[in-house]
Specification:
The chain folds into 3 domains: 289 residues, Sandwich (Jelly Rolls); 77 residues, Sandwich (Immunoglobulin-like), CATH 2.60.40; 74 residues, no CATH class. It has 477 residues and is mainly β. Helix 3 runs antiparallel to helix 6. The strands form 4 sheets. Strands 2, 3, 6, 7, 9, 10, 11, 12, 13 and 15 form a 10-stranded mixed sheet that branches. Strands 1, 4, 5, 8, 14, 16 and 17 form a 7-stranded antiparallel sheet that branches.
Length: 477
């Protein structure tokens, strides 16, 4: 992991059991116990698996075991051992039913307590070394339209003890591996212990993929010589299916102007990073990759099982209504995930329905009734006619206030014969005539007219004055 994999010399089918003194004697004990039937995985089975279920294992530093008929490779990646001797015991194993996994136990170390180990399974190629016989990777990023994962995995480790995670990652390299240093690394933490923290997320709910999984953009470490982005599941649960193109699109469009299209995606690996004072075991029933319709499978079956709950991609995350008046409202929504191929949106309020082109995220509706509750909805439509989940919200139009009228003058209420909002008929006889000019002159300085210039400011200067009298006299003439 991170360019410091100690398994370079072992090859894709190696099972290195290097003998070590001191702290690694516990590792030899684990292997001996497995052979005697005392050590077994219990995950994914109704009871403890017998030692005879272990078909092949590797407990030495960097030891490897092929899985999925060579499509995947287990790597006993005790990465931090290259930094300093550790009180660690770790083995990777393939079982007779095709499932696979690993277990670990690590105490304290003074050598490099902050350095993780990383037992893992790889499909594809590492930038530096290991490769698997899968036929999918490497492939230029510009040529990838689909990069999906299918997972059935269980982790048995105490979430409240020590620091550990289950994380997947992939790299970009400027030329075909093996050999080149990566320029970019992307990690997704699928689940983790309580102590595995990096502070608050840079952006919560940054990505929602086509299966409905939501990921936070968690961190951007600088401890390696290339660009490194870390995401994590928002619910800290391992998804059954993931769409990695959604995360690649987010990196490309939102946070990294130099995420190169012409670089090579080398492969995908998943493993447990773990630190001091932890122990656990992980077992995969399935780990499959689907790249542009081609599938590499490992585990107990040879099919890519797609989560039926994610067969219809999600569209807008929410709907908001703004600028509400008695007769008008604007419906807005966030754009769908960048990886989703949206044809257009359909927005509705009441019985009004409009199509909105992709790239536009609002629609204004008029002709509404005042003091009425409406439901606003938005759905994303895909090129094949399928629709996403519908997002809805309700809103209330305000009450239509009655049109104000001026106070009576000398007991008579003025009227507005031409409906322009100005009350030139001061004596209320329904006509504009000379008697209104006299009435205006007599009351021009009075409190009633001065307090309501909006009704009597005929010339539009904001005041009730002699200029308005001249305008009114002109209407009579």
């Amino acid at each position: 992991m991170h360019g410091n994999d100690s398994s370079d010399a072992d090859g894709p089918d190696a099972s290195n059991d290097a003998t070590r003194d001191g702290p690694l004697s516990r590792r030899r004990f684990l292997r001996a116990s497995a052979g005697a039937g005392a050590l077994a995985f219990s995950l994914g089975a109704s009871g403890n698996a017998a030692a005879a279920d272990v078909e092949r294992e590797a407990c030495g530093s960097g030891g490897t075991v092929p899985v999925g008929n060579g499509a995947g490779l287990l790597i006993n990646n005790d990465w931090s051992v290259s930094v300093g001797q550790q009180n660690t015991s770790m083995c990777v194993r393939r079982f007779a039913d095709g499932s696979f996994g690993w277990e670990w136990e690590r105490g304290e170390t003074d050598a490099c307590a902050e350095c993780p180990n990383y037992p893992e399974v790889l499909i594809g190629t590492k930038p530096w070394s290991n490769h698997t016989d899968q036929g999918l990777f490497p492939l230029r990023r510009s040529e990838i339209d689909q990069l999906d994962l299918d997972l059935d995995v269980e982790v048995d480790a105490d979430p409240a003890q020590g620091e550990w995670n289950l994380a997947l990652e992939w790299w970009l390299t400027p030329s075909q591996p093996p050999g080149p240093e990566p320029t970019h690394e992307t990690m997704v933490v699928l689940t983790k212990s309580e102590d595995h923290t990096k502070g608050g997320s840079i952006e919560e709910a940054a990505v929602t993929d086509k299966y409905g999984n939501t990921f936070d953009y968690w961190a951007a470490p600088d401890h390696v010589d290339w660009t490194f982005h870390i995401f994590k599941t928002a619910d800290n649960e391992v998804p059954e299916n993931l769409d990695l193109t959604a995360i690649q699109a987010y990196v490309d469009e939102e946070i990294d102007d130099e995420f190169p299209d012409d670089h090579w995606v080398t492969g995908v690996e998943i493993g447990n990073e773990y630190w001091d004072d932890t122990q656990g075991q992980t077992r995969f029933t399935d780990f499959d990759v689907r790249l542009n319709g081609q599938v590499a499978t490992t585990g107990t079956d040879s099919e890519f099982t797609e989560d039926s709950g994610g067969s219809v991609p999600e569209g807008p995350a929410e709907v908001t209504v703004t600028d509400v008046t008695p007769h008008e409202a604007t419906v807005t929504w966030p754009a769908a995930a960048p990886n989703l191929d949206i044809s257009h949106y359909v927005a509705s309020v009441g019985d009004q329905r409009v199509e909105v082109p992709e790239g536009t995220t609002e629609a204004t509706f008029d002709g509404l009734d005042g003091d009425t509750q409406y439901t606003a909805s938005v759905v994303a439509v895909f090129p094949d006619g399928d629709e996403s989940d519908t997002r809805t919200t309700t809103f209330q139009t305000p009450i239509i206030e009655p049109t104000p009228e001026p106070e009576p003058i000398d007991g008579t209420r003025p009227t507005d014969p031409d409906g322009d909002g100005l009350y030139e008929d001061l004596n209320g006889n329904g006509e504009i005539d000379y008697s209104d000019v006299v009435e205006y002159f007599n009351n021009m300085d009075g409190e009633t007219m001065q307090a309501d210039a909006r009704f009597y400011d005929y010339n539009g200067n904001g005041e009730v004055d002699f200029a308005d009298l001249v305008d009114l006299f002109g209407e009579v003439q």
